[in-house]
Write a structure and sequence with these properties.
The protein is an alpha+beta fold. The protein is built from 4 helices and 6 strands. It has one domain: NE0471 N-terminal domain-like, CATH 3.30.2020. Helix content is about 25%, strand content about 30%. The chain has a 3-stranded antiparallel β-sheet with strand order 1-2-3. A 3-stranded antiparallel β-sheet has the order 4-5-6. The longest helix has 12 residues. The radius of gyration is 15 Å and the shape is globular.
Length: about 120
């Protein structure tokens, strides 16, 4: 099995997406993190604005009940998952390669950057 293909996907609509990868590692993405890191153009633009100006006003992100949830999800071929969020956002297709890249447990921290500089 390809190490970058999921063996198992488990979406808890009000919590997050857990993935067990072909190489035996696991990843977890909260619903809020997935929405923030959406690869759709509007979300990329918002992240760029936030990098330039940390005081950027974020969209409310809430749906009908006030809490952001995943209303539904569907596989896209054998390479991605599309998630429909309660705030109406449904244009993002998360490729498995992209999900590996944005895994929150594998993101470098400021401390990592300081240690590399030493």
């Amino acid at each position: 099995m390809d190490p970058n293909q999921p063996r198992h996907l488990d979406l808890k609509k009000d919590k997050g997406l857990a993935i067990e990868w072909g190489d035996g590692t696991s990843s977890y993405y909260s619903i809020g993190y997935l929405r923030k890191m959406s690869p759709a153009a509007d979300a990329r633009h918002l992240r760029e604005q936030m990098e330039k100006n940390p005081l950027t006003i974020l969209p409310s992100g809430s749906g009908r009940s006030g809490a952001l949830v995943a209303d539904s999800a569907e596989l896209v071929g054998n390479y991605a998952i599309k998630i429909h969020f309660s705030d109406g956002h449904s244009s993002a297709i998360y490729s498995f390669a992209y999900l590996r890249k944005i895994d929150p447990d594998r993101q470098p921290t400021d401390q990592d950057a300081e240690e590399e500089a030493d």
